[in-house]
Design a protein that fits this description.
Shape: globular
Number of helices: 7
Structural class: alpha/beta
Radius of gyration: 20 Å
């Protein structure tokens, strides 16, 4: 069955990128950042047509079987550009005090349990993203290290708020799970950056020369990284901000 041919546009001052929200009750709602050129939407929706068709089919198939409401402002879709994957997210309220995440066929996530607890849902999604980051980023880092002749000690995946990555003096590399939301070329830039720090500990001339050798577009990528945070969902940092206000 075809998804809705019309859609509602919602302008959000907090939105950093275009977000598609699909539900049986509201149809297709397109959330756009303030100042976004809405003439670009038809082309964007055409690119997402297959995902919309699959998501609408799943919604129709599950009609009458799942809990109706999605917790306010929580995602119904995750666009993991680094892995080239898009995941739909559904919320099923049960009597369980916990929130669990299960993967279904065709890149679907099912959150079940106390889904009215917004922070519990975010924590569950963050744990799932951490596993995905280990699955995708660790093998890529190892591959680049082999290609460049680098050695590192251990890899840690964290939900760092301000850093995309870091390298300790012991050669331990920490990567942010938020890298999953960035395009592959920016992810590779960050990984090359941290691998070069296993040799050059500061940002001196030798460091940039080494990075330029392995990533000739590094200066351009460096500029792109200044606005890369706009691709990361705002809700991913919500727990940290809530604690900071106490």
């Amino acid at each position: 069955m075809q998804p809705p041919q019309t859609y509602t546009i919602r302008v959000s001052a907090r939105a950093r990128h275009v977000r598609l929200c699909l539900s049986l009750r509201d149809g297709l709602v397109v959330v756009v950042p303030r100042g976004f050129d809405q003439h670009l939407l038809p082309g964007l929706l055409e690119q997402k047509r297959r995902w919309l068709e699959r998501a609408w089919t799943r919604l129709q198939a599950g009609h009458g079987q799942r809990a109706p409401a999605t917790p306010a402002q929580l995602p119904v879709m995750l666009n993991l550009q680094a892995a080239g994957e898009e995941w739909t997210v559904e919320y099923h309220a049960t009597n369980s005090p916990r929130v669990t995440v299960r993967e279904s066929a065709a890149h679907g996530l099912r959150l079940a349990g106390h889904t009215s607890d917004r922070h519990a849902c975010i924590a569950a999604l963050r744990c799932w993203l951490n596993r995905k980051a280990h699955q995708h980023l660790e093998p890529l880092l190892a591959q680049l290290a082999r290609e460049g002749g680098f050695r590192y000690n251990r890899v840690f995946i964290k939900a760092q708020r301000t850093r995309w990555g870091s390298c300790s003096t012991r050669g331990n590399i920490s990567l942010s799970l938020k890298l999953l939301f960035l395009p592959p070329e920016l992810v590779r830039y960050v990984l090359w950056h941290e691998l070069c720090h296993t040799v050059e500990k500061n940002h001196g001339r030798r460091f940039w020369a080494l990075l330029q050798h392995h990533d000739p577009e590094c200066q351009f990528r460096r500029k792109q990284m200044r606005t890369a945070g706009r691709m990361v969902p705002v809700w991913l940092d919500e727990r940290k901000r809530s604690r900071a206000r106490r």
